[in-house]
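User: Here's a structure from my thesis project, written as structure tokens. My advisor, Dr. K., wants to see whether a designed sequence matches the one we expressed. Can you design one independently, without my sequence as a hint?
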């Protein structure tokens, strides 16, 4: 954004402070992730983006998706992803994306944190999904916000058991993951009637509104940085959460979002079904 361009966010805040906003006018929700990325692009000195390379990469991804028949329906075909289309699956996805971070390891593939589930070994993101499925089979209510808040039941030892590894390496940041669960459980209890469904309903079919609700209420989803005096929003896992709901429920029911195109590609992750729509 150049010096002579209007900062729409600042202008909106000024209008609101002066009581000039009209309640009858409904402005479509925006995450401002793309706008912030554009600001970084326009103001960066040490890093530049090759627009031709970006377009070539997007075309390559699109062609690969077409060749492999990849779509939002692909999400549910993976053996580890939930197959039911109900509230329990919403709870699973919320838990999954609440904890979906930091699986990096300097160790070899054979030595890194690994979950053994039904005779198959899983690493990275899939180790998380496998661990959650295993815990539920062991009747540990790992996707329950009531469980997260119970300090006598949901202990660090229980969480260590849930994420027990088939190798000597333990899951990174276990204490921080427990903190995330506690924090999210408290927010759901105090703000959303103990269920993430309330959050989905409040978004009223808007992917951008749901992302904003998530980052506004759940601090562990609020990944932001400061650059040249401006807040830069990434909202990686919040967007992944919305995209997973959309893909799992095939754009219907709990996954119906009329503005899914406002969800962006996620920093540091592989493309998902919503990255090109």
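Assistant: Designed independently from the structure alone:
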């Amino acid at each position: 954004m150049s010096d002579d361009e209007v900062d729409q966010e600042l202008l909106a805040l000024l209008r609101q402070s002066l009581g000039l906003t009209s309640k009858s006018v409904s402005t479509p929700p925006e995450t401002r992730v793309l706008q912030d990325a554009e600001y970084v692009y326009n103001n960066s000195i040490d890093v530049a983006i090759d627009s031709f390379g970006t377009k070539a990469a997007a075309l390559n991804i699109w062609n690969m998706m077409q060749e492999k028949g990849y779509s939002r329906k692909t999400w549910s075909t993976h053996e580890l992803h939930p197959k039911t289309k109900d509230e329990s699956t919403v709870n699973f996805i919320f838990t999954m994306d609440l904890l979906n971070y930091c699986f990096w390891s300097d160790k070899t593939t054979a030595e890194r944190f690994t979950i053994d589930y039904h005779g198959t070994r899983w690493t990275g993101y899939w180790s998380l999904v496998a661990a959650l499925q295993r815990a539920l089979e062991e009747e540990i209510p790992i996707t329950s916000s009531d469980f997260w808040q119970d300090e006598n039941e949901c202990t660090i030892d229980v969480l260590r058991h849930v994420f027990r590894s088939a190798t000597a390496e333990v899951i990174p940041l276990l204490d921080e993951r427990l903190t995330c669960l506690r924090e999210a459980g408290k927010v759901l209890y105090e703000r959303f009637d103990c269920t993430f469904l309330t959050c989905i309903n409040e978004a009223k079919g808007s992917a951008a509104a749901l992302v904003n609700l998530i980052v506004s209420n759940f601090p562990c989803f609020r990944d932001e940085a400061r650059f040249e005096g401006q807040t830069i929003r990434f909202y990686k896992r919040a967007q992944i959460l919305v995209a997973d709901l959309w893909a799992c429920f095939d754009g219907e029911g709990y996954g119906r979002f009329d503005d899914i195109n406002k969800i962006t590609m996620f920093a540091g992750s592989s493309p998902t079904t919503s990255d090109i729509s």
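When you compare it with your expressed construct, this may help: The radius of gyration is 20 Å.
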